[in-house]
Amino acid sequence: MKTASLSYKPQLKNFLAYFALMLSLFTVMVAGFYLIVNKGESLPEYFSSVAVLYILLPLFNAAAFAYSSRKHELIISEVNDPAYVAKWAVELLQLNGMRIKSTEDNMTVLESGKKYTRMLNNWFGTELLTLRTSENEVRAIGNFRCIDILDTKIKFGQVAFKDQPYKHS
User: How many other CB atoms sit within 10 Å of the CB of residue 151?
Assistant: First the structure.
């Protein structure tokens, strides 16, 4: 059995969506503070005093979100029974708070069981994990948290399929 991990690039749509969300929240906050703490300043003077924070905080938050929400892939290859490995991965992820969203022949999609992370998935599409099986490998594609659970359990835990000799076809 071999494992390999891949990290994808951050998605621009996640960056832009989160930047727009943060910018709109900061606009509401800045306007609220202006109305509450108005000391005779005009609106352009007030915005010029907070302009750097008004742009930089949403920019840095969006960049951090884009990098933390990028997809990762774990490839488990050279296994004799990929269906067993996929079943094991689904059971492990279900123990860690995931639930099955849909199942097809060679593909299972899992989503978080928590409302907040499901909301993030609905807004940004970041919280789904897809398990695909082929003839001699299993591919898990999803966020880092779930991929790391699988990878760590395979590397450091006791799994039944770890030391099986691979039967070449």
Answer: 18
Task: HSE, CB side, 13 Å, CA atoms: give it for residue 128.
Answer: 12
CB 103 within 8 A of CB 27: no
User: Which residues in the chain belong to E strands, given as ranges?
Assistant: 2-7, 72-77, 98-103, 107-112, 129-133, 137-142
Amino acid at 48: S
Compute the distance between CA of residue 90 and CA of residue 76 in angstroms, rounded to an integer: 14
92-147 pLDDT tens trace: 999 998 999 999 989 999 988 888 777 777 677 778 899 999 988 999 999 898 99
Amino acid residing at 131: L
Domains and CATH numbers, the chain: 2-7+70-156 (3.30.160), 12-68 (no CATH)
